[in-house]
Design brief:
Layout: E1 16-17, E2 22-24, H1 45-54, H2 60-63, H3 77-90, E3 94-96, E4 102-108, E5 113-122, E6 131-132, H4 139-152, E7 154-155, E8 159-163, H5 170-177, E9 183-186, E10 192-198, H6 201-211, E11 216-220, H7 222-239, E12 247-254, E13 261-263, E14 266-269, H8 274-281, E15 287-289, E16 293-294, E17 308-312, E18 316-322, H9 332-344, E19 351-354, H10 357-366, E20 370-373, H11 379-387, E21 398-400, E22 410-411
Parallel strand pairs: 6-11, 8-12
Antiparallel strand pairs: 1-5, 2-3, 4-5, 4-10, 5-12, 7-22, 8-11, 9-10, 13-21, 14-19, 14-20, 15-18, 16-18, 17-18, 17-20
Helix pairs in contact: 3-4, 4-7
Length: 415
């Protein structure tokens, strides 16, 4: 576990500012749902290819340019995406709103609806204890997001923050969302996504006062927030002046009013057999290794026991469990990354992350490896870790449902 430095700043204001939103032009794009996408890190290759093939103007071309075939061999994918973004703005595929606003964003389905505020979040160092991380990050992914941000000078993907607001903004959000929305989109997964502008001065003051002295947890977007900070520091180092890089696009959700669900992020490890894994794991102190069991056509599922991992190659499975009290285990990922991975000596490039069991099993099969199935951490445990200044291992949680990318964006030139 990594402990963050204690707050030395004395300032703890959470600030969410208005911005001029950039959105798809409904006069050019008849079905905005078809050009949006899930967040970049929950999509596998088949989903990405489906979106790319479904509409040539899908936002995936901008947020995952390295996954798009390069028509000019050797062209930097981030510069290519930046040129495409500029072209789309010039051709009014993407347009900007007339005035700055906070945006009320409601989304979900019949079973679960979420509503929050999208704004330009004032970036704060982790030591300030205003924006709280709870997971470590992978440097290569941060560098990837930074390359995209630096090339495009735009926030195309809001990070997702949660906080305890006691529902105090509900009346304002109700009043704003009673109006006809700026955007009313049905995504290919049949979720709805609606957007309204919040511009009234009194309401904006109420929001600012409400956020005074609050903390927000990064629910989704640790790598993007780290990229925000690095981009800010690069600009400050180059000239020291303030600018649009001092803020980043964020969706802020009151966990009291709209509780998010926490899902697991499973792993696959390439070029590893069950027998090899069991042999090494048996040598790890306090780790219990279960017997092999055939699946017999049943779908493997995570263990219900805390601190117990299910490992499978899709044909047989076993369990790895840490033999300590439940109270000592923060998450299954802690067991995996602090005990099992070091014992196996697995390098990062053989470890992959998946938001569904099916994705993990498919990757394990394709890469002659195993899937490690995890169960989600409890929300209370995540909050406890963050507020204590601790870090869970990278990719420990998947808060959801997640917003759709491409509905509302922020370009530095419009700030």
């Amino acid at each position: 576990m990594i402990r963050q430095p204690a707050d030395q700043s004395g300032a703890s204001t959470l600030r969410l500012s208005t911005f001029v939103g950039m959105r798809y032009n409904t006069e050019t794009i008849s079905d905005v749902g078809a050009v949006t996408s899930p967040p970049y890190d929950v999509m596998d290759r088949s989903m990405i290819e489906s979106l790319l093939n479904g509409n040539p103007r899908n936002i995936v071309r901008l947020i995952l340019p390295r996954m798009v075939a390069d028509p000019m061999a050797g062209e930097d994918p981030y510069r290519r995406a930046a040129k495409l973004l500029a072209h789309w703005r010039a051709e009014r595929v993407l347009v900007t709103d007339d005035s700055p606003a906070l945006y009320v964003y409601a989304y979900g389905d019949a079973a679960h609806q979420i509503r929050g505020l999208v704004g330009a979040l004032e970036l704060r160092d982790y030591a300030d204890r205003v924006v709280l991380p709870h997971e470590d990050v992978i440097d290569g992914i941060v560098s990837d997001r930074l390359a995209m941000l630096a090339a495009q000078d735009a926030n195309l993907e809001p990070i997702m923050l949660v906080y305890d607001g006691h529902g105090e903004l509900t009346d304002i959000l109700d009043r704003v969302s009673a109006r006809p929305p700026l955007a009313d989109v049905t995504a290919p997964d049949q979720t709805f996504h609606r957007l309204w502008a919040l511009t009234a001065s009194a309401d904006l003051r109420s929001v600012a006062d409400h956020l005074e002295r609050r903390q927000a947890l990064i629910a989704d977007g640790h790598h993007r927030y780290a990229a925000y900070l690095r981009n800010r520091d690069l600009h400050r180092g180059a000239g020291g002046r303030q600018g649009p890089w001092d803020k980043g696009l964020a969706l802020l959700i009151d966990q009291t009013a709209c509780p998010l669900q926490v899902g697991a992020i499973h792993r696959s490890i390439s070029d590893l057999s069950i027998a090899q894994l069991k042999s090494v794991a048996e040598q790890v102190d306090s780790l219990e290794v279960g017997p092999l069991a055939g699946l017999q056509g049943s779908s493997p599922q995570p263990s219900t026991r805390r601190g117990s991992l299910v490992v499978t190659d899709g044909t047989v499975q076993s369990t790895l469990a840490l033999a300590v009290a439940d109270s000592e285990i923060l998450s299954d990922t802690q067991v995996l990354h602090e005990r099992v991975i070091p014992a196996l000596g697995i390098p990062e490039d053989r470890l992959n992350y998946h938001h569904s069991v099916d994705q993990a099993l498919r990757a394990a099969s394709q890469q002659a490896g195993v899937a490690v199935l995890l169960k989600p951490a409890a929300t209370a445990d995540v909050m406890r870790v963050a507020q204590a200044g601790l870090m869970m291992p990278r990719k420990s949680t998947s808060f959801g449902p997640k917003p759709r990318m491409g509905l509302i964006m922020r370009h530095y030139d419009d700030c």
